[in-house]
Amino acid sequence: DGVGAAAEPSAAQEPQPETLPPSQVDATQTVDAVVETAPQRLRQSISPAARRLATELQVDLATVIGSGPDGVIQRDDIERSHAEKHVGKGDAWRKPVVAQDTMRQAIAAAVTRSNSEIPHYYLSKKINLQRALQWMEERNRTLPIQDRMLPVAVLVWAVATALRQVEELNGFWIDGAFQPVAQTGIGFTVALKTGGLVMPVIKGEALDHPEQTMAALRQLIRRSRSGRLSQSDMEGASISLTNMGDLGVDSVYGVIFPPQVALVGFGRIVRQPWAEGDALMVRSVVTASLAADHRATDGLTGARFLDRLNNVLQELEFAS
User: Fold this and answer.
1) How far is 181 from 15, CA to CA, in rounded Å?
2) What is the spatial distance between Cα 247 and Cα 270, in angstroms, rounded to a whole number?
3) How far is the C-alpha of 104 from the C-alpha of 110, rounded, in Å?
4) Distance between CA 42 and CA 76 in Å, rounded?
5) Rounded distance between C-alpha atoms, residue 272 and residue 280, angstroms
6) For the whole prediction, is pTM greater than 0.85?
7) Helix axes 151-163, 130-140, angle to 10 degrees
8) Are 244 and 267 in contact (CB under 8 A)?
9) Tens-digit pLDDT profile for residues 241-264
10) 259 preceded by cis ω (within 30°)?
């Protein structure tokens, strides 16, 4: 359902650098090892996603030249090497689907577990983003183009701010009880170009201001799509968020990623009639939704969270 956004991160992300097969490098060398590619020895690294794909396709890493930063071997390099190996041999080459199938199975398993174990309840609220977007546009005029914010950064930041005030949704359901967390971490769904989803985590100072949130989002999305996420990038999520507005979806009703107790969704921002007092205006509006675990909270808590989220975006507490 697209929000399976709440997919098991571990399914799409392998541990960081492991040792290469003995046939490719001796037992004392790691993935950040020296690889024989020419008369001279060049130090090259390989992303976890590329390493797994190389294993699946039986590509000899010693024959691959990395195109990533500092010569890092990426998925595209593995696919290109595999394609070149089969050109002219009467073997029609196709992009591998094994990794995508594995990821899809893991997502399905996580969603099945969530639906069977968690009694979900759903709430939604339309939020007027006019003031928040005006603030963002004014702020962006003072920033370099590469640092300018997108609406999603303001929304992610607002969710984190509201969670600090409605702490019953910020934590885990473990051993039959809710366990709150001291630090908020938001798992943000990223769709990969090769198919599938990963969920890196925005946390710490990155949630203190929308500009910092935007910077963190850029880095995490870039690393996600280049297969360079670290284990720490995937850890620390106390709640998940999925934003499907860029796909034209009006609202999202997600599946909670256990042991979390809630997931927040945002649809597309639309211009629509909006009543303010006795006046009818046209405003930029987004539908925010909440999927929550009925074992940990009830509809009253969920409604309080959405109300607080709305207030954060109206009061512009981040303006400076």
Assistant:
1) 24
2) 13
3) 10
4) 19
5) 10
6) no
7) 120
8) yes
9) 999 888 889 999 989 999 999 999
10) yes
